[in-house]
Every structure is written in C-alpha cells, then in structure tokens.
Fold:
Amino acid sequence: MLFFVSALSIAAQGQWKVGDKVEILNLSREWVTGTIIGTVDWGGKEMYRVKLDDENASTVYFNHTPATDIRQRGGQVVALPPKQEPVAPPAPLADTVGDGEKVDVYYNATQGKNRGTIIGTQGNKYKIHYTGCTTTWDEWVDRSLVRDPATVTPDADNISFLFGKWTLTEVAVTSYNVAWGKAEGIEIGATGSYVWYQSGGKAPVRGRWTTDAKVPGSDSGTQFYDGILVKDAEGQEWKAFKWVVKGYPDGIEVQRMCSGIAIVGSRAR
Structure:
C-alpha cells in the first residue's frame, strides 16, 4: 500500500512536520501514538495525515486530522475542537424498510457514521452490514439511528471530476501496465464503466461503477466523500473520490472500504 506524502515542513510554532512522533485522538477519542506522514489542504484548512504505531488498529491511517487533535507524546493536553453546529437531521427511516435495504447509520441525531445494508431486524433494532467491511463489523443499531441513504447523481461535480484516466503509483513496467503512464492506473468512464490496471502482474479489472454519496454529518473515512465504488481483482470494494493535496489540485484517491488502505494519484496528461 502506497501513500502520497507531502514533504513540506511547517515552520510555524505549534504546528507539525512530516516525521514528527505524536499522539492523536482516534475515532474513540482516545490518545494513541503515531507519526505525521503529510499535510492536506482540506477546504482551505491545513490538516495532517497520520499513521498509527499500532498496525492492528481498526484504522491505521488518519487522512485529515486537525492540529487540535494532535499533541506531543507525553506532552500537555490540548483543547479539543469546538462542537460542530447542529445540522438538520435526515428524513426518518420509512416503516417499510427491511432486509436488503441500504441505509445510513448515525452516532446521534446529526453525526453520520457509515453506510450499510440491513441484514436483520429485532424489535426496535436493525442489524447492519457496512459496505465493503467484513462481517466482524456487523452490528445491531437502534432504529432511531438509521436513516434513508443519501444519494449523489453521476452528473454531480464531485463525480464527473473523476471521469478520465488517472496515473496511480509508479511500478515496474509489465505487459499489464497502462500505456499512458507506464504505471498502474484507472480509467473511469462517464457512462458507468471503469478499467483498473493493477500492479503485480494482474490483468486489468473491468466493471461498472456505482455512485456512493457522503453520509451527512460524517467527518472522516470514505463516508466523508462523494465518490464511486469499484472492485479490485479480488472482488474487494474500493471508493474513488476527488483528493486535493497541496501542489496537486487535480488528484484522486482510491481507498479500500473499511480499511484506511489507499492509493493516491493524478490525472494522466
């Protein structure tokens, strides 16, 4: 797994640079150790990419961590970011929803968690299988935290941005490499098709992509982006979405669902 790493050092006092050993707040809001591996311009705000020391953590790579969620190892506790302003909750789930229905799951009335499929019903709870995850992530969720899924159309700006040819990580040239970049890459068609040229001598994967909207109120992971779902040579689901990094305004990220494993690339010229 290969990641784009910004080499920019941050000189401002109180900020972090690539290679710094730090502690960050994980998804459970616990302090865990990790290393700064890059920076990201996220809507005009500088965020940090962090790799955790614990390779067995449920999420090893944090792709847009704010400075307020980072501290020196064993250092002073920093103030947590202010709470987000409440947003309008999504529409209540229809009474007729049953097994096989796609839904969005929430932590609370406004904070989005993830998207999945209902695979069981018991009283006022639904059993959810999250998209692209193993069955170990399946969980029972209270009905009040399950909503109709958000949608995004193929002609939306964040989706149409993905159409075209993208060069991903540089690899040794083989007969399977995509010609436009002498590297593995992906071609995303406007009519719903894709061709993914992967490394390791694998034959190109050809298939049909589907849109996958951002889960409203989410703040991390693949569920934070409007994008498309594709499958690799092993049939595992990945999400491709627009990824703008400093100095690379025309970028893409392809991230394996429910893993944090990702490949970043740029448009083939």
